[in-house]
Each structure stands twice: as structure tokens, then as C-alpha cells.
Fold:
Amino acid sequence: MEFDATTDRMIRQPQVSLEEQFRLGAECQAWQSRIARLQERAKGESPSRYLPAAIAIAKRRGAVSRNAIVLSVMRWIAKRAKECRRNPHGMTFEELVSVGALGAMRAAEKWDPSRGIHFLTFADYSIRRLMYRHGGYGKSRKLRLEDTSLSTDVLADIAADRGPNHMATFHDGAALQEDMALVHRLLPKLTAKQQEVIRLRYLCGQWRTFHDVADDLQTTPKAVQDLERHGLAKLAENIRWETSGRP
Structure:
């Protein structure tokens, strides 16, 4: 199959091993600490006029590591969305995937890899709780997806260490590499615009908001958000098909 240059670069990215995921987590934590320090300095008397730009740069750099972590667990997010969707009063599958991705982003910003806890162990509770809260049980509630780096408003009570659980099979480098390989293999099943949006939002090496991507693609932020939501949902559905053999 022939790919354009953008898609080819995206597919040929190095796969994320367990060690690489821990490294990305350490980078994300370092940038979060820097953001906190800069924001504290900005509250002081006569703050430097360069602080807002420094904070924006730190948020973008931290988001690059965070997004790479999120993309490596897309198969698991799809599985959780499928389980949560069984409630007839909940949100649609694509909405749950978006919520799950947001939960993974929030967890990635709180994850401290120096404690030796695997990311999926740490994020499991956060993602499931967010999915169930916004559609898994009872009333369906719409969740507004922030157009920021999500460095604030994180879940305060994420259970960091929940001990051995059913996700243990994912906690090795080979499994993570397999997940990333599957994601890259299925990306060409998306439309060209969906691939481009996901590349610019998650894979281009720097964080971009919906407005930034809209400017690049000469469209509206709402159109970009819709393309991302449908693209992630389609990717998750294809992952579920590949791993379960069922539609």
C-alpha cells in the first residue's frame, strides 16, 4: 500500500517500549514541575514579562510526552469504552473513547514513574471512573473537551497503586510495542483529514490546540474537534475489531 510522506513518517515512528514509556513519564513530570514553578513565580511581585511565553513553551513540551503515552494505550481505552457502552443510557462509543483519552491525559500528568508503578495500573481507575461518571451509569452527561494542555482540573483522587489486577498482561515492553504497532497499522484506515488531525495533535513533536490545527488546515476549530473525535472513535473501533474478531 502506498502512503503519502506524512503518513509514512507517522507509521515508521519508533515503537514505545516499557522503558520508553517510563522515560516519557519522567519527562512529563519534569515539565509539570517546571510549569508549577513558573506559575508560582508569575504570582510574585513584578514577574518577568517573559514568564507567560516560558509557561506556554513548557506546557507544549510536556504535552508531547503526555500524548505519546496516551497513544500507546489506545487499545486499552477502546476495550474500556466497549465495556462502558453496554449501559443503554450512556454515551456513544466515540464519545466514550474521547472521554477515555482525556482521562489518560490527566493520568499521564499525575503519573510518577519513579515510584515504579506501571502507567496502566495508575491510570485504570482514573479512566474508568471518568467514563462511568460521564456515560457509563445512569444519566448521560456531555464532557467538554478542553482545548488546552490539561495541566489543571485533574482528578485529585486518582488511586496510584491498586495492586495486582487484570491489566497485568499489558505491563511489559512487548505488549506496549504490540499496541503501538497496531495503532500505526490501523491509522491508514482513517480518512486523510482524520489522519492529519491526529498527526498534528499527537504525533508532530509539539502540542497544538484545535485552533492551531484549524489554522494549518484552513478550517474551523469545531471541524478539527469533530475530525479528531470521529478519528479516535474509528481507530478504537478498528482496534476492537482486530483484537476481538467481532464488530
About this structure: The CA atoms of residues 107 and 123 lie 5 Å apart. The two ends are 24 Å apart (CA to CA). Residues 1-15, 136-176 have pLDDT under 50 and may be disordered. The chain has one domain: 15-244.
